[in-house]
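Dear support,

Our group has been running a series of protein-ligand predictions, and this particular one with zinc ion is the one our PI (initials K.S.) wants archived with full inputs and outputs. We had some confusion internally about which version of the output was final, so please treat the block below as the authoritative record. The input we submitted was:
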Amino acid sequence: MTYKSKGISRRKFLKSSALTASSIATATTLDSCTSSTSKGPVIDVHMHLENVGNYWEGLIDEIIEQYDYAGIDKGVIFNMWMPSRESNDRTLIGYKKYPDRFIPFGHVRPIDSDWEDEIKRISDSNWKGIKLHQGEMREGGPDLRKTTLDIIEKVAKYKIRIVLIHLNNYEQIDEITREFPEIIWIIPHMGSQKGREDLKLICELVKNRKNMYLDTCNVGDYHLFGEAFQWAGIEKILFGTDGFQCSPLVEKAKVETLKLPTPYRTPRLTDEQLSMVLGGNLAKILGL
Ligand SMILES: [Zn+2]
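Confirmed final output from the archive:
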């Protein structure tokens, strides 16, 4: 079953994943309104189970509280800024606690001698993706490009399908997404570009590259989203929160506000377009 089934609310979808086709039809007729403006499930593509490497007791439950309040059904989770093995262990703990709410992604950093073992472990666990960050990759040696390519080669070798990678450099993003067409690339923070013109460039690259997407999280210039979504194509934009540093409620509002008039006179998002950005596009990528 896919999220495309029209008229089924997010909550009903979650409850109905085990239902038969005929009972889905019943669920459709009995559909009731939910608090979210999205007609489909809302899925966050970017949730840290830490805040820049710090974590505390109860943090995982606090994220669920944030998700419930904001009307977010599920989230891609990972840990960073700590040793590779520890990060993946912690992600596994979160996933085991809330398997219906969390989708685990792995993580490695090149300074850990066991990083390739961890990539294999992520693959053996059937986790669909991995999170990488240039801040950690830089510590792997003087040549960021080479370090990144070394790791991506192993990611491709172990057939991990999705890479969520924080990179600022346009040329490098262009190169890896072209050189590894078998990988689905998600670039956070709308490509981390500074200013409207650079944002437009990265959006145009995304539009023309089949295996590339942008996530919306932790972007200060969210007033440019109306234009950016048009440049990249609605089907290439994935809602993300960058919790637990950023507020899921606020990050969702930055997207939902595009249902209202925008300063750059871009067309308002339709219900269907909003649902695509808030979860439909990601559901397709994840095969949910
Ligand atoms: Zn992040």
